C-alpha cells in the first residue's frame, strides 16, 4: 500500500507544476488600471518583472544594462521622473537604484528598481529622456560615487570641494573619523558608545 | 576691476565652467548673485551678464547642506521627526507628515480618524502660513512692502495657534508615526482657528487691491520666465508652477491622503505659464485652502484616540518596524514633497531620501528660465518659482 501511494503523490506534483505557472501570473496583476498598465509595459519589455503593490503604486525590476531602454518605453505613460533614490546594500555589495516615476494621466507611482555592483559603479544617463535627471544624477554621483556615462556636469555640486570623492552617504563612510580630522580636538563632546537616543 | 588680482586656481576653476573672473569686454561681466542677497535665501547663482541681460546662469547650491539624510540613518525612527522637519522652514509640518506616512505604511498602521483630521488641519494651516511667508518675499521683491508686512502679521496668528497646539512656533515636532503627539487643546482653540480663517477671508480682498490686482505686479510679471507644459513635465516641475502651465496635477486629488477625499475643493489651472500665471494660481489656492479649513471645522474633529494603540510604542527608542520600503508624498506650497523610507528591520531607518520640489525646479529649470532675462527679473523669477533652497541642499 505504502509503495503504491508514494509514486501517486509524485505524479500529482509533476502534473500540477506546468498548470501552476499561468495561474500564479494571473492573480499577480489584478484587473485594475494599475494591473493593465503593468501588463501593457511588460508586453513590450519581457526582460522586466513587474507587480502591483497597492492602489496607485506599481513596481518593476529591470536589469541594469537595459534600464535606458525600459525607461524610454515607460516615459510614454509616466510623464515625470520624481526622483532617483540610491540605497547602499553594503552586505550584498550592491547599489540599488530606484527610479521613481509618476504618471500624471493615470495617477500611478512606479518604482523602477535595478541593482549594480558597488565597485566601479557605472550607469547610462537618462538625461535624454527626462532632462531633470541631470540634477538627480549629479546628486547620486556626489553622495555615492556612481558614474553616469553621458552626463556632462558630474562634479562637486552640493558638497564642498574637499568633500568631493568621499561619498558620504555610502554605508562604509567613516563619519566620526572624517569629522575628527576636520575639527580635531574640539570634537570631544560626542560619546561614541551612545546608541540610545530618547525623544 | 582689472587691478584686482584673482588667484590662479580660482580663475582656472571658473574657466572650466566657461566663466571668466574679469570683465571680458566693456559690457560682458560676471555677477555673483547670492547667497547674501535677500531674494535668494542662502542660495547662490553665478550670472554671466551682457549689459543688463543674463546670458548664462549657473546654480551654485550647498550653502545650507546639513546632511539630514545621513543623520537620519544614525537615529531611531521617532527621533528623526525633530530632524527632518527642519528641511523646509516655512512649512515644517510637511516633512513631518511625509516621513510619518511612509513609516505608517511600512508598519501597516491605520491611523485613527481623529489623528487624520488633526493632521489635515495642521497641513492646511501650514500651507496657509507658508502662503503668507511667500507673499512677504514676493511683495518685497517687487517693492510692495506693505503687503509683505501685512502677511507677516497674519502669519503670526497661525504661529500662535500652532504654539498652543504643539508647543512650538516654527518647529512643531507634532506629527509622529501612528498619529499625533497630543490632542487638540479644546473648543476654544477651534473657535480661534475659525476666527482666524474668517478674518483672513475678509483680508484677501485687501491683498487683491494691494498686490494681486496691482498694476505693478502685472507690469513686473507678465511674460517673464515663460515655460510650457511639455518643458514643465520633462523637468518634473510640480505644484503651482506646473498648474500655471495648464496641467491639473494636485497630489491631494490624484493620490488622495488623510481627509482630502471627503472634502470639496477646486484645483486652479492657468495655461500661460509665465510668472503672472504662477502668482495668480497661488492667489486662487489661498482661497481654496481657507475654504478647506472652513469645511474641516464644520465637520468637527471625529471622536476617538489620537494615536494608534500598539504595545511597541511603549519602548520608543527600540521600536522596530518590519523590513520594507514606502514612498509617501503630499502637496506643499512648493509642489510635490515626498519621502522614500527604507527599513531593514532594525530600530534605525536604513535610508531616508527626501524629494524636495525645488530639487527639480530650482536647478535646471531656473538656469533655463534665467537665460535672456533682465537683471531686475532675476528675483521675480526666483520668487514666482518659489524656490526653497533647503529642499535642494537638505
Automatic annotation (TrEMBL), chain A:
Q: Which Gene3D superfamilies does the annotation name?
A: NADH:ubiquinone oxidoreductase, 30kDa subunit (3.30.460.80)
Region described as Disordered? 1-29
Give an example GO molecular function.
NADH dehydrogenase (ubiquinone) activity
Q: Where is the NADH:ubiquinone oxidoreductase 30kDa subunit domain?
A: 61-178
Query: Which InterPro entries does this one have?
Result: NADH_quin_OxRdtase_su_C/D-like, NADH_UbQ_OxRdtase_30kDa_su
Could you tell me which NCBIfam families the record lists for this protein? PRK06074.2-3, PRK06074.2-5
Q: Which family does it belong to?
A: Belongs to the complex I 30 kDa subunit family.
Q: What is this protein called?
A: NADH dehydrogenase
Please tell me the species this chain comes from.
Thermococcus barossii
Automatic annotation (TrEMBL), chain B:
Q: Where is the NADH-quinone oxidoreductase subunit D domain?
A: 142-394
User: Family assignment?
Assistant: Belongs to the complex I 49 kDa subunit family.
- Give the matching NCBIfam families: PRK06075.1
- Keyword NAD carried by entry: yes
This protein's record includes keyword Translocase: yes
Annotated PANTHER family: NADH DEHYDROGENASE [UBIQUINONE] IRON-SULFUR PROTEIN 2, MITOCHONDRIAL, NADH-UBIQUINONE OXIDOREDUCTASE 49 KDA SUBUNIT
The species this protein was found in:
Thermococcus barossii
The protein's name in its UniProt record: NADH-quinone oxidoreductase subunit D
InterPro entries xrefs:
NADH_Q_OxRdtase_suD, NADH_UbQ_OxRdtase_49kDa_CS, NDH1_su_D/H, NiFe-Hase_large
Entry GO MF terms: NAD binding; oxidoreductase activity, acting on NAD(P)H; quinone binding
Q: Which UniProt keywords apply?
A: NAD, Translocase, Transport
Q: Which domain of life is it from?
A: Archaea
